[in-house]
Design goal:
alpha+beta; 84 residues
């Protein structure tokens, strides 16, 4: 189905119903097609897809940083004055 921009603005709900029924809707500016309304393909969500690919986080992930780690994080030199 091909409709004008004005028609699409006025009858969007009807056009969406047509798309849900499987129709493709082309919106044209004058005689030039500029957009298409098509159904969105729903994809199932797969949980655990990367299980075994990404290693688990280290046990100390949320432990506070020591002064040298904090200095490196903030872009400063650690207390001993050299980078690791």
């Amino acid at each position: 189905m091909r409709v004008t921009v004005h028609y699409a603005k006025t009858h969007l709900s009807k056009l969406l119903e047509a798309v849900e029924r499987g129709e493709d809707v082309t919106i044209a500016r004058g005689s030039v097609p500029v957009a298409r309304l098509v159904p969105v393909a729903s994809e199932p969500v797969v949980f655990g897809l990367l299980k075994g690919v990404i290693p688990p986080p280290p046990d100390d992930l949320f432990d506070p940083m020591d002064e040298d780690e904090l200095a490196l994080w903030e872009g400063r030199l650690p207390s001993h004055g050299t980078l690791p």
